[in-house]
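Hi R.,

As promised, here are both runs. First protein below:
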Amino acid sequence: MKLEDFGYNDKLQKLRVENNLSDFEIGRVIAEHKERYIVKTESGEYEAEITGNLRFSAKSRIDFPAVGDWVALTTYDAEFSVIHKTLPRLSMITRQAVGRFGEIQIIATNIDYAFLIQAIDRDFNINRLERYLTICYSSKVKPIIVLTKTDLINEQKITEIIDSIKQRIKDIVVFAISNETQDGYEALKMAIEKGKTYCMLGSSGVGKSTLLNNLSGKTLMRTDSISLSTNKGRHITSHRELIVLESGGILVDNPGMREVAIADTSSGLETTFDIIIRLSLNCKFKDCTHTNEIDCSVIEAVEQGEIDKKSYENYLKMEREKAHFESTIEERRRKDKEFGKVIKNYKKDTKKNKF
């Protein structure tokens, strides 16, 4: 296979030249297992590890390679190669690291489109879809909504759910499919573009692994059922993996995410809730929180039915999360700065005491 077959393009070639990496072999990280990587190159797949210099210079986990990254490496044999550098990322899907405030977890990099997958029978939740949209918009990734397990409900209910999505979420394509009957698959396959990379975002048990198997025509991932006792999906995929489909599209399979905490410090929320942002320009106060202020255009729009109340409440909740995440990062930076000063002063004192 050529590099172009798994997503290489002119932008990446330009970055390769600009970063003086032309003398290294180039590959794409297709799987990650506790800082051990599988990298796909034109000559095959290799197990890889990062150089000590790359590990030492990394300021956080984000500086380590992730699934989807293009890396410069030296290959020795199938069981050993060394990653020297990661090419600058064209996109990076992230979320808050579970249980570690202020830290970011990479879901995948260099993604063009994200399938936002929900089971239409029991997992369906528009609030969660808005969360995934926020993640996509802040990551410069185009979202596509995929509703699975349509064979479990009737046509009228499917239509009602799709209509409810389109009332709250504008200009996003929605596909409704059945993993059992294959209904809707033809239209979804037609939408997958050759050379583009797709990421699957969704909870455990919504049918991501089955979707991957059906799109590829092969059993690439083991699947399992919903736990009847907890009504939650069982974790089947425990790591991220990148697969090239026969159609030419590239698909990243992810573990199911029970927590979707946003790590948005850019324009994700503003794009997802653009109508709220537009109306906020008409509020009496510039720092209006849209909760209890007088002459708040957003509250007025909610009361008049122009803005869906549940969408408004979801916006406020995610805005609070965003503010908390940003304040946590700021606090971490402040502590790091103070620690740096302590170390600097210690070195000065040590140097003085020598003379």
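And here is the second one, sequence first, then its structure tokens:
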Amino acid sequence: MKLFRKRDFITIGFILLFSAAAITLFYTILKPTETLPIYQPAEVNEKLVDTSIIHVSKYHKISDFKLINQNGEEITQEFYKNKIYVADFFFTTCQDICPIMTKNMYRLQEELKEDNDVLFLSHTVIPEIDTVQQLKKYAVDNNIDESRWNLVTGDKKQIYELARKSYLAVEDAEFGEYDMIHTENFMLIDKKRQIRGFYDGTDNLEINRLLSDIEILKKID
């Protein structure tokens, strides 16, 4: 005597399939959407923020800029329009954290080389030394993809203000006007020119976190 008829198996299969779909849908609804904070000057270490904006708690964005890259080309915010990008501050003759930061930015470049929505921007903090020629040599020595990664120099005051009023990334130095003490920070900037994350550019685990956050940002930006 048959315990189950063919149509019973079909019914059971349908119930199991429906149950699996229902569980998946239920889990999707309950699972919180991953997101990233939008950083404001008031939330960042005050040593890295210009005193004129230290109390700003909303609407902070990266300011317009006009700098010169390693090929002598003028680079403005238009180059990064509707793009996600990673920014940092460095100088070419730095022998401590800069080589590690550059190595890790290169890692980002290579791991994201098929992703045209993500770009890179490195600002020198010593523009009087880091000329176009110096930056070009540094770019060649470090295998930089110049279509996606700009090393920029220019007016020292503008770089200083970008660092401390826009990217909230460097410390003020007391030994000269507009002198800066750069940090190991990488900043993740969204398509609206907002800061979405700070990362230790010398730490491999932090680079992993940055890569993960880029994927999150691509879904929500």
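A quick note on the second one: DSSP finds five helices and nine strands in the chain. Let me know what you think.

Best,
J.
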